[in-house]
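Journal club side-thread
Mid-discussion, someone asked how the predicted structure for our own chain would compare to the paper's figures. Pasting it here so we can look after the session.
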Amino acid sequence: MLLRRARWDDLDALHAVLSNDRAMVYWSSPPHERREQTEEWLAAMIDAPPELSDDFVVVRDGHVIGKAGAWRLPEIGYALHPDHWGQGLAREALAAFISHVFTRPDVTQLTADVDPRNPASLRLLASLGFRETGRAERTCHTHIGWCDSVYFALDESDWHRPA
């Protein structure tokens, strides 16, 4: 598994993730119905200014299987195709991203916003040392209805790369 910057030839692989109902159930937008939606999303990822964004695609065995990073610092986000769930890859990708991003002098804390109905993400963030900082109800209306939020933070001083 490796992280690298997104390229235009990642479009089809990313569309396979972003159009997948299971991968997108807790995302802030519905699954992409059209390839053009993913093309716009990918353009935004590629063109994002580095002072605001530090985002990567996740590659396994030469194939893009998802994304991990921060579309808008300091908030992290990640998504993997369900075919790759439950294998420790999200944890590996996020650990690599966190180690990378904390080398930046302008990033001293990362945050995350997770739907409380997403136990895998709650466990993942806790395993990486994120601490819960709050909860709120009905914070976002998405394709699955109203969603609540569990907020997390990880300070650079608390980061110890997992073995």
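Post-session note: The longest helix spans residues 35-47.
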